[in-house]
Amino acid sequence: MSDHPSLQPYVDAWKQSIESISELVSPLSEGEWNRATDCPGWSVRDVVSHVIGIECELLGDPRPIHTLPSDIYHVKDEYSRHMEIQVDVRRHHTGPEMTSELEYTIIRRGRQLRNEKRQPDAEARHVLPGEDDITLERQLLLRAFDVWVHEQDIRRALRAPGNLDSPGALVARDVLVEGLPKVVAKGARAPKGSAVVLDVSGPVEFLRTVRVDQEGRGSVDGSPSLGPVVTLSLDWDTYVRLACGRVRPDAVSERVKVEGDGELGEAILRAFSVVP
């Protein structure tokens, strides 16, 4: 990776988060593996299975040949069905089996990434079904993002908070902020010519303004707006949970301050999730 230093921050963030997951789950009892997470239908075991499965696919391992049960309520479309295969095939694995496979997968992927010699703009596989190929740089950014988000899913389930300001958190901030123009302009249909301010506090602190032009297109920048139609103020953990679809707005209403157009603010919060 030293040949392409622009990729190294994403590799480092991925490594820190996935090793943190390994440290979190290594001492778990069998019962703790079954704790529910904020991902609908997924336990701690299931989240770890998902992480392992995606990394194995990027290693070139064949996808499991597996038929899903017909009664999995959270599998509603082809996307969720695709993702569930790697999860359900490991659903009856023991804790030691899970930790052993995770550790081995980390070693294999770490070796693969150390030996990566392609350019950042080289074509790479997208991990989501039905998506076009992306650049290697984008793939690594999205892996750092995804693994950090799932680390936080596990931490909340185990009541073991941490790493809210880690390298992966900063990658997550950038990915989630990318989705704000679509949330505000398309999802909430903010008025043309308006500006919406997001003021986020806590371990990762930032202020972003989403501007909607006269064509109804949104853009985001770090400049303050003198007359925003609405300002949303919230803490980083709540921002992550909302933007990743882990919680409904009404469940965290006391942690979000809406100033200005309250109706638009509520519409933005309803459209806030930017992940599949």
From TrEMBL:
Pfam families: MDMPI_C, MDMPI_N
An example molecular function term from Gene Ontology annotations: metal ion binding
Domain Mycothiol-dependent maleylpyruvate isomerase metal-binding, residue spans: 16-155
UniProt domain MDMPI C-terminal: residue ranges: 171-264
NCBIfam families per the UniProt record, alphabetical: maleylpyruvate isomerase family mycothiol-dependent enzyme
UniProt name for this protein: Mycothiol-dependent maleylpyruvate isomerase metal-binding domain-containing protein
Protein source organism: Streptomyces oceani
